[in-house]
Amino acid sequence: MYFGPALKAHWGLEDPSEVVADEAALDAAFRATLAHVERRCKAFLDLPFDRLGRDELKRELDRIGAL
Question: Which InterPro entries does the protein's record reference (predicted)?
Answer without folding.
Answer: Ptyr_pPase_sf
